[in-house]
Design a protein that fits this description.
Layout: H1 11-33, E1 45-48, E2 56-62, E3 65-71, E4 76-79, H2 87-96, E5 104-108, H3 114-117, H4 120-127, E6 130-134, H5 138-143, E7 151-152, H6 155-167, E8 182-184, H7 191-194, E9 199-203, E10 212-216, E11 220-222, E12 242-243, H8 246-258, E13 263-265, E14 272-273, H9 274-278
Parallel strand pairs: 4-5, 5-6, 6-8, 11-13
Antiparallel strand pairs: 1-2, 2-3, 3-4, 7-12, 9-10, 10-11, 13-14
Bound molecules: zinc ion.
Length: 279
Protein backbone atom coordinates (compact mmCIF):
# COMPACT_ATOMS: atom_id res chain seq x y z
CA UNK A 1 0.00 0.00 0.00
CA UNK A 2 1.27 3.50 -0.86
CA UNK A 3 0.64 5.79 2.11
CA UNK A 4 1.32 9.52 2.22
CA UNK A 5 2.05 11.08 5.59
CA UNK A 6 1.39 14.66 6.73
CA UNK A 7 4.77 15.82 5.37
CA UNK A 8 3.80 14.74 1.89
CA UNK A 9 6.27 11.82 1.94
CA UNK A 10 5.40 8.25 1.14
CA UNK A 11 5.84 5.56 3.78
CA UNK A 12 8.95 4.31 1.98
CA UNK A 13 10.41 7.82 1.60
CA UNK A 14 9.86 8.42 5.33
CA UNK A 15 11.50 5.09 6.20
CA UNK A 16 14.46 5.94 3.96
CA UNK A 17 14.92 9.37 5.58
CA UNK A 18 14.63 7.81 9.03
CA UNK A 19 17.33 5.28 8.18
CA UNK A 20 19.54 8.01 6.66
CA UNK A 21 19.17 10.19 9.75
CA UNK A 22 20.00 7.21 11.97
CA UNK A 23 23.16 6.53 9.97
CA UNK A 24 24.24 10.17 10.12
CA UNK A 25 23.65 10.18 13.88
CA UNK A 26 25.67 6.98 14.21
CA UNK A 27 28.51 8.51 12.19
CA UNK A 28 28.43 11.66 14.32
CA UNK A 29 28.54 9.47 17.41
CA UNK A 30 31.54 7.59 16.01
CA UNK A 31 33.23 10.87 15.15
CA UNK A 32 32.73 11.98 18.73
CA UNK A 33 33.91 8.70 20.17
CA UNK A 34 37.06 8.73 18.15
CA UNK A 35 38.05 11.99 19.72
CA UNK A 36 38.04 10.46 23.20
CA UNK A 37 40.12 7.36 22.53
CA UNK A 38 43.73 7.11 23.66
CA UNK A 39 45.53 8.56 26.64
CA UNK A 40 42.74 11.02 27.19
CA UNK A 41 42.13 14.45 28.63
CA UNK A 42 44.26 17.37 29.72
CA UNK A 43 45.73 15.42 32.57
CA UNK A 44 48.62 13.53 30.95
CA UNK A 45 48.77 9.78 31.35
CA UNK A 46 51.99 8.28 32.65
CA UNK A 47 53.07 4.89 31.34
CA UNK A 48 55.60 3.02 33.49
CA UNK A 49 58.04 1.03 31.38
CA UNK A 50 59.68 -0.99 34.15
CA UNK A 51 63.11 -0.17 32.73
CA UNK A 52 65.84 1.84 34.41
CA UNK A 53 66.92 4.15 31.60
CA UNK A 54 63.46 5.37 30.54
CA UNK A 55 61.26 4.55 33.55
CA UNK A 56 58.18 6.41 32.32
CA UNK A 57 56.59 7.91 29.28
CA UNK A 58 54.16 10.81 29.38
CA UNK A 59 51.22 10.76 27.02
CA UNK A 60 49.35 13.97 26.22
CA UNK A 61 46.21 13.80 24.15
CA UNK A 62 44.86 17.00 22.71
CA UNK A 63 41.91 16.60 20.39
CA UNK A 64 42.50 13.51 18.38
CA UNK A 65 46.18 12.59 18.69
CA UNK A 66 48.34 11.02 21.40
CA UNK A 67 51.66 12.86 21.73
CA UNK A 68 54.41 11.22 23.76
CA UNK A 69 57.15 12.78 25.87
CA UNK A 70 60.29 10.73 26.45
CA UNK A 71 62.94 12.07 28.84
CA UNK A 72 66.24 12.81 27.09
CA UNK A 73 69.69 13.87 28.31
CA UNK A 74 68.48 17.45 27.98
CA UNK A 75 64.75 18.01 28.38
CA UNK A 76 62.30 15.83 26.48
CA UNK A 77 61.79 14.31 23.07
CA UNK A 78 58.20 14.92 21.99
CA UNK A 79 56.82 12.45 19.47
CA UNK A 80 54.21 14.21 17.30
CA UNK A 81 52.10 17.24 18.16
CA UNK A 82 48.40 17.59 17.35
CA UNK A 83 46.03 19.76 15.34
CA UNK A 84 47.07 23.40 15.02
CA UNK A 85 44.08 24.54 17.09
CA UNK A 86 45.09 22.31 20.00
CA UNK A 87 48.29 24.16 20.87
CA UNK A 88 46.84 25.98 23.88
CA UNK A 89 45.38 22.74 25.24
CA UNK A 90 48.74 21.08 24.81
CA UNK A 91 50.44 23.85 26.79
CA UNK A 92 47.82 23.52 29.49
CA UNK A 93 48.49 19.79 29.70
CA UNK A 94 52.23 20.45 29.93
CA UNK A 95 51.77 22.84 32.84
CA UNK A 96 49.59 20.22 34.51
CA UNK A 97 52.70 18.05 34.47
CA UNK A 98 54.90 21.00 35.52
CA UNK A 99 56.82 20.84 32.27
CA UNK A 100 57.88 24.13 30.68
CA UNK A 101 57.67 24.66 26.97
CA UNK A 102 61.45 25.11 26.79
CA UNK A 103 61.88 21.66 28.32
CA UNK A 104 60.90 20.24 24.96
CA UNK A 105 64.26 19.91 23.26
CA UNK A 106 63.30 17.71 20.30
CA UNK A 107 60.12 17.20 18.28
CA UNK A 108 60.02 14.03 16.20
CA UNK A 109 57.28 13.99 13.57
CA UNK A 110 56.32 10.45 12.58
CA UNK A 111 54.82 11.83 9.33
CA UNK A 112 53.41 15.02 7.85
CA UNK A 113 49.66 14.76 8.60
CA UNK A 114 47.91 17.74 10.16
CA UNK A 115 46.95 15.86 13.33
CA UNK A 116 50.66 15.12 13.94
CA UNK A 117 52.41 18.26 12.69
CA UNK A 118 49.60 20.79 13.23
CA UNK A 119 51.26 22.93 15.89
CA UNK A 120 54.86 21.79 15.29
CA UNK A 121 55.89 25.13 13.77
CA UNK A 122 54.53 27.14 16.69
CA UNK A 123 55.94 24.79 19.29
CA UNK A 124 59.38 24.71 17.63
CA UNK A 125 59.41 28.51 17.62
CA UNK A 126 58.38 28.84 21.27
CA UNK A 127 60.58 26.04 22.60
CA UNK A 128 63.49 26.34 20.18
CA UNK A 129 63.32 22.55 19.88
CA UNK A 130 65.12 20.62 17.18
CA UNK A 131 62.72 18.98 14.73
CA UNK A 132 63.43 15.41 13.62
CA UNK A 133 61.63 14.38 10.42
CA UNK A 134 62.05 12.09 7.44
CA UNK A 135 63.34 13.67 4.25
CA UNK A 136 60.21 12.62 2.34
CA UNK A 137 58.01 14.46 4.84
CA UNK A 138 59.70 17.80 4.18
CA UNK A 139 57.85 18.83 0.98
CA UNK A 140 54.42 18.41 2.66
CA UNK A 141 55.55 19.89 5.98
CA UNK A 142 56.79 22.97 4.18
CA UNK A 143 53.40 23.33 2.47
CA UNK A 144 51.45 22.72 5.67
CA UNK A 145 48.98 20.44 3.97
CA UNK A 146 48.10 16.75 3.88
CA UNK A 147 48.86 14.66 0.84
CA UNK A 148 45.31 13.86 -0.24
CA UNK A 149 46.26 10.93 -2.48
CA UNK A 150 46.07 8.36 0.33
CA UNK A 151 43.23 5.86 0.02
CA UNK A 152 40.76 4.81 2.72
CA UNK A 153 41.55 1.29 3.80
CA UNK A 154 38.04 0.14 2.86
CA UNK A 155 34.67 1.41 1.64
CA UNK A 156 33.20 1.82 5.12
CA UNK A 157 36.07 4.08 6.21
CA UNK A 158 35.71 5.98 2.94
CA UNK A 159 32.10 6.87 3.77
CA UNK A 160 33.10 8.05 7.21
CA UNK A 161 36.03 10.12 5.94
CA UNK A 162 33.90 11.72 3.22
CA UNK A 163 31.64 13.09 5.92
CA UNK A 164 34.57 14.07 8.13
CA UNK A 165 36.16 16.01 5.25
CA UNK A 166 33.04 18.21 4.96
CA UNK A 167 33.80 19.65 8.39
CA UNK A 168 37.57 19.51 8.33
CA UNK A 169 40.24 21.68 6.70
CA UNK A 170 43.61 19.93 6.75
CA UNK A 171 45.81 23.02 6.27
CA UNK A 172 48.20 23.85 9.12
CA UNK A 173 51.06 26.33 9.72
CA UNK A 174 53.98 25.42 7.46
CA UNK A 175 56.88 23.65 9.13
CA UNK A 176 60.13 25.01 7.70
CA UNK A 177 63.18 23.09 8.83
CA UNK A 178 66.21 24.96 10.15
CA UNK A 179 69.86 24.05 9.60
CA UNK A 180 69.99 22.62 13.13
CA UNK A 181 67.03 20.27 12.56
CA UNK A 182 67.65 16.59 11.90
CA UNK A 183 66.60 14.92 8.67
CA UNK A 184 66.18 11.15 8.63
CA UNK A 185 67.11 9.45 5.36
CA UNK A 186 67.10 5.79 6.46
CA UNK A 187 66.98 3.62 9.59
CA UNK A 188 69.10 5.27 12.25
CA UNK A 189 70.79 3.83 15.34
CA UNK A 190 72.72 6.88 16.48
CA UNK A 191 70.56 10.00 16.83
CA UNK A 192 68.46 8.86 19.80
CA UNK A 193 71.48 7.49 21.65
CA UNK A 194 73.28 10.78 21.12
CA UNK A 195 70.45 12.66 22.84
CA UNK A 196 70.37 10.20 25.74
CA UNK A 197 67.55 7.91 24.65
CA UNK A 198 68.57 4.28 24.16
CA UNK A 199 66.80 3.30 20.97
CA UNK A 200 66.55 3.72 17.24
CA UNK A 201 64.47 5.36 14.54
CA UNK A 202 63.22 3.09 11.77
CA UNK A 203 61.28 3.67 8.58
CA UNK A 204 57.79 2.17 8.79
CA UNK A 205 56.04 3.10 5.53
CA UNK A 206 52.57 2.03 4.48
CA UNK A 207 50.34 4.73 5.94
CA UNK A 208 52.59 7.28 4.23
CA UNK A 209 55.90 6.65 2.50
CA UNK A 210 57.78 8.82 4.99
CA UNK A 211 56.39 7.27 8.19
CA UNK A 212 58.98 6.66 10.88
CA UNK A 213 58.83 4.99 14.29
CA UNK A 214 60.88 5.15 17.45
CA UNK A 215 61.83 1.80 19.00
CA UNK A 216 63.37 2.02 22.46
CA UNK A 217 65.84 -0.63 23.60
CA UNK A 218 63.34 -1.53 26.36
CA UNK A 219 60.81 -2.69 23.74
CA UNK A 220 58.47 0.32 23.92
CA UNK A 221 57.84 1.69 20.44
CA UNK A 222 56.09 4.81 19.15
CA UNK A 223 54.70 4.17 15.75
CA UNK A 224 52.48 7.13 14.84
CA UNK A 225 49.84 5.93 12.40
CA UNK A 226 51.64 2.73 11.33
CA UNK A 227 48.73 1.07 13.16
CA UNK A 228 45.51 2.42 14.63
CA UNK A 229 42.71 1.32 16.87
CA UNK A 230 39.87 3.06 15.08
CA UNK A 231 36.67 2.05 13.37
CA UNK A 232 36.45 -1.52 14.53
CA UNK A 233 32.91 -1.26 13.13
CA UNK A 234 34.56 -1.00 9.70
CA UNK A 235 36.74 -4.10 10.33
CA UNK A 236 39.98 -2.13 10.08
CA UNK A 237 41.83 -4.65 12.27
CA UNK A 238 44.45 -2.11 13.40
CA UNK A 239 45.29 -1.05 9.87
CA UNK A 240 45.62 2.72 9.39
CA UNK A 241 42.35 4.16 8.09
CA UNK A 242 44.31 5.76 5.23
CA UNK A 243 46.93 3.79 3.39
CA UNK A 244 49.45 4.48 0.69
CA UNK A 245 50.50 0.85 0.40
CA UNK A 246 48.68 -1.76 2.47
CA UNK A 247 51.31 -4.48 2.00
CA UNK A 248 53.93 -2.10 3.36
CA UNK A 249 51.77 -1.63 6.46
CA UNK A 250 52.10 -5.37 7.22
CA UNK A 251 55.83 -5.36 6.37
CA UNK A 252 56.34 -2.45 8.76
CA UNK A 253 54.58 -4.36 11.55
CA UNK A 254 56.97 -7.31 11.01
CA UNK A 255 59.91 -4.91 10.86
CA UNK A 256 58.88 -3.36 14.19
CA UNK A 257 58.88 -6.78 15.84
CA UNK A 258 62.28 -7.62 14.33
CA UNK A 259 63.57 -4.28 15.67
CA UNK A 260 62.58 -5.33 19.19
CA UNK A 261 59.20 -3.62 19.61
CA UNK A 262 57.03 -5.28 22.23
CA UNK A 263 54.53 -2.59 23.29
CA UNK A 264 53.51 -0.22 20.52
CA UNK A 265 52.11 3.22 21.30
CA UNK A 266 49.81 4.39 18.57
CA UNK A 267 48.61 7.92 17.92
CA UNK A 268 44.95 6.99 17.89
CA UNK A 269 44.05 4.47 20.55
CA UNK A 270 45.61 2.73 23.51
CA UNK A 271 48.98 0.93 23.43
CA UNK A 272 49.00 -2.54 21.88
CA UNK A 273 51.13 -5.63 22.15
CA UNK A 274 53.05 -6.08 18.88
CA UNK A 275 51.71 -9.64 18.62
CA UNK A 276 48.17 -8.23 18.51
CA UNK A 277 49.13 -6.71 15.17
CA UNK A 278 50.85 -9.78 13.81
CA UNK A 279 48.41 -12.51 14.85
ZN1 LIG B 1 48.41 10.03 9.55
Amino acid sequence: MYRINKNGLSYYQSRFLFRLESKILLLLFLMFSFTVLGCGGLKPRIYKTGSEKIPEIICIKTGFTNAFLIPAKKGYLLIDTGYADDYDLFREALSHQKIHIVDISYILLTHHHDDHAGFAAKLAKDSNAVIIAHKDAIPRLSQGKNDSSKKPVNFCVGVFLSIFSIFHNDAYPEVSLKASDIIITSDDNTILNEIGIPGKIIETPGHTKESISVVLDNGHAFIGDAAMDLFSICMCQHRPILVEDEQQVFSSWRKLKEAGAKTVYISHGDPLNIDTLLN
